[in-house]
Amino acid sequence: MLITYLPESLITPLVLQCDAESNYLEQTTTSNVAPSNATPEEKQIELVMSEVRRLEEVALRNEDELGALSQASRLTDDVVIQGEISELRQRLVGTDHELQKTNSTLR
């Protein structure tokens, strides 16, 4: 099982983004309420629209994060795969030498 770790360069922006989202949520719950003279339906629509805007922003940020993570994962996976290929090549060379010894012994 391969375990990949996120590089520090990705962790810090993720933490900052979580803080920003938390602050955003705290602000939207108090500032995006419809005016006091609005009907209950208008207030409810305003709350729904505010939540839709927030979810759209979060979706865009999530797409950006996934792109960055998949790129980092591909780079890590490429390094791991290259290491495994190198190890297999070394084992193949060793096996080839053993086969040549066996072949020469049998002749």
What descriptive keywords fit this protein?
107 residues, rod-shaped, single chain, mainly alpha, 2 helices
Written account of the structure:
With 107 residues, the protein is mainly α. 85% of the residues lie in helices and 0% in strands. The longest helix has 67 residues. The chain is rod-shaped and about 100 Å long. It starts with 7 loop residues before the first helix and ends with a helix.
How far is it from the N-terminal to the C-terminal residue, by CA?
A: 44 Å
Q: Summarize the main sheet.
A: none
Instruction: Provide the structure class.
Output: mainly alpha
Number of helices: 2
What fraction of the residues are assigned to beta strands by DSSP? under 5%
On the 0 to 100 scale, the average pLDDT is 77
The unreliable regions are none
What is the ordering of alpha helices and beta strands? HH
How many beta-strand runs?
A: 0
What is the global morphology?
rod-shaped
Overall radius of gyration: 28 Å
Indicate the percent of residues in helices: over 70%
